[in-house]
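Reply to dn_fold:

You asked what the input looked like. This is it:
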Amino acid sequence: MTSAQYRLRGSSAGTSQLLLVVSDGRGLFLEGMEAVRSAVRQARDANIFLVFVILDNPKDKDSILDIRVPLFKGPGEMPEIRSYMEHFPFPFYIVLRDISALPETLSDALRQWFEFVTAGE
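and this is what came back:
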């Protein structure tokens, strides 16, 4: 554990931390959908504010918004095809297509996190 983590843990119990995840957002459920949802819940319960920044294709080709996944309801039933983003487990996410907008996007996320933290005091 670093000294910065120690200081955050040693501060008041209501203090929230910010975790920015920057990824293409694909393959999140390789360990299982419930495992990912459980990790997101554990982070929320630990007062960690998660923001997922999805770096998407700028040409609108093979966009994460176009991905479809099968949803299996029961044995012997045909799967229902749904949008991948309908099952995206992170409540706060940004789909970013222009990488040059990343600094502004991250500063907006940081501003919103400060608002979230100060509103809870």
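Confidence is low (pLDDT under 50) at residues 1-13.
Hope that clears it up.
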